[in-house]
Specification:
Elements: H1 4-24, E1 40-43, H2 47-54, E2 84-87, E3 92-95, E4 105-106, H3 117-124, H4 130-136, H5 145-172, H6 178-213, E5 217-218, E6 221-222, E7 226-229, H7 231-245, H8 247-256, H9 268-271
Antiparallel strand pairs: 1-2, 1-7, 2-3, 3-4, 5-6
Helix pairs in contact: 1-5, 1-7, 1-8, 2-4, 5-6, 6-7, 6-8
Length: 272
């Protein structure tokens, strides 16, 4: 029989695993659920006007910046920007609508996905406007593909390990034994550390990009790029809190639970 306190640890672990699953599946395909989950997103709605301003032209003088086609197309083909880009942990998707709208395309999923927004936008932008992109967008952390790519890849690895440990903590905690409860607490603690480290990296990166790009201007015209935190990021932070709260019940169960499966069985001598 599972210790009552251990049950609390298991419940928190289950909550963490479920939340982590939602955080992990963001943008992995075009289904209704996954396309509404994201770690970070960017709107490019006003970027065409900023490109025009960089050439001293009126906003409507620049044509072909955006790909307004309704058919799905490949990424990185210089076919034009999309209005919204959304990143998950495994890939990113683009759409000509708002957040969660039908996808124009999704990049290939990969373990160790790199968050490199400037590179994504640059590769979608028509070649004739790439010079204007370099001239108008500030040369700061937003365009530092090496920094963003390396840290986002490392963060994804750490988060994946943290998610595996959370699931393992849930399974180990089912063992009706003090050692199992202690192991559950230790594994939950390791999971918390991994998740916290990975999410701190993502949160700081996104914060730096937002500070560097949101609000920048080109010749007194708004830059037109606006990054926002995604709901998937907060879901994973909630999962991190849940696995943290699993530690204490497991520790209490370790102190109050039985030390062996036959601890409470009476001896044959006592029966006579």
């Amino acid at each position: 029989m599972v210790n009552i306190c251990a049950s609390g640890g298991i419940i928190f672990s289950v909550v963490a695993v479920v939340l982590l699953a939602f955080g992990e599946i963001g943008q992995i395909n075009t289904s209704v659920v996954t396309r509404h989950l994201r770690i970070v997103s960017v709107s490019t709605t006003g970027f065409g006007a900023a490109i025009a301003a960089s050439d001293g032209a009126p906003p409507d003088a620049v044509k072909g910046v955006y790909n307004t086609g309704t058919l799905a197309s490949a990424n990185g083909t210089n076919a034009g920007l999309r209005m919204t880009y959304e990143w998950g942990l495994w890939n990113y998707c683009a759409t000509n609508g708002g957040l969660g709208s039908s996808r124009s395309y999704c990049s290939k999923r990969q373990f160790g996905e790199r968050f490199q927004p400037a590179k994504v936008l640059y590769n979608d932008l028509p070649v004739k406007y790439q010079g204007a992109f370099n001239a108008s967008v500030p040369a700061n952390v937003f365009r530092d593909d090496k920094y963003l790519g390396a840290f986002s890849m490392g963060a994804q690895y750490i988060l994946f390990v943290g998610a595996i440990l959370a699931a393992l903590s849930m399974i180990v905690g089912l063992g009706s034994h003090r050692i199992a409860y202690l192991a559950g607490a230790i594994i939950a603690g390791l999971s918390f550390l991994c998740l916290a480290i990975g999410l701190v990296i993502y949160t700081i990166m996104i914060s730096r990009v937002m500070k560097a790009v949101n609000g920048f201007k080109v010749a007194d015209v708004a830059g037109g790029l606006h990054f926002t935190y995604g709901n998937g990021l907060w879901i994973m932070w909630a999962a991190t809190g849940a696995i943290f709260f699993a530690i204490v019940p497991f520790l209490i169960a370790c102190c109050t639970g039985r030390s062996s499966s036959i601890e409470d069985e009476p001896s044959k001598e006592e029966e006579y």
